[in-house]
Amino acid sequence: MTTATQTKPLFSLGQVTATPDCLAAILSSGEFPTTYTHRHQHGQWGDLGAADQAENDLSVREGYRILSAYILPTGVRIYVITEHDRSLTTLLLCSEY
Questions:
Q1: Mean predicted lDDT score pLDDT of the chain
Q2: Can you give the residue ranges of every domain in the chain?
Q3: Ramachandran quadrant class, 43 (left: phi over 0; alpha: psi -120 to 50; beta: rest)
Q4: What local confidence, expressed as pLDDT, does residue 4 receive?
Q5: Residue 85, SS3?
Q6: Closest-CA residue to 68 (of 28, 10, 24)
Q7: Contact (CB, 8 A) for 93 and 25
Q8: Which residue from 30, 49, 51, 80 has the highest number of Cβ atoms inside 10 Å of its Cβ?
Q9: pLDDT band, residue 25 (cuts 50/70/90)
């Protein structure tokens, strides 16, 4: 399992995009999108169970899609998803998935 002390990025994010509603939710919570992309890229998978975290660890090694979930200070849940080919990372609300 990836540790919270991972200092080097585990994978490329590619182009980073966010849905308008997700971006508004992040900014209105007083946070920045880079907080969550950085955590995602460094293996801090957020609010996921052990099985999903293990799946992400496998996905990093094998080149599959990676999904992290975070709860903003306002209680809103967001996803950060990096595609299997590492060409695109998207931030979106849970309800937009």
A1: 95
A2: 15-96
A3: left
A4: 52
A5: coil
A6: 10
A7: yes
A8: 80
A9: very high
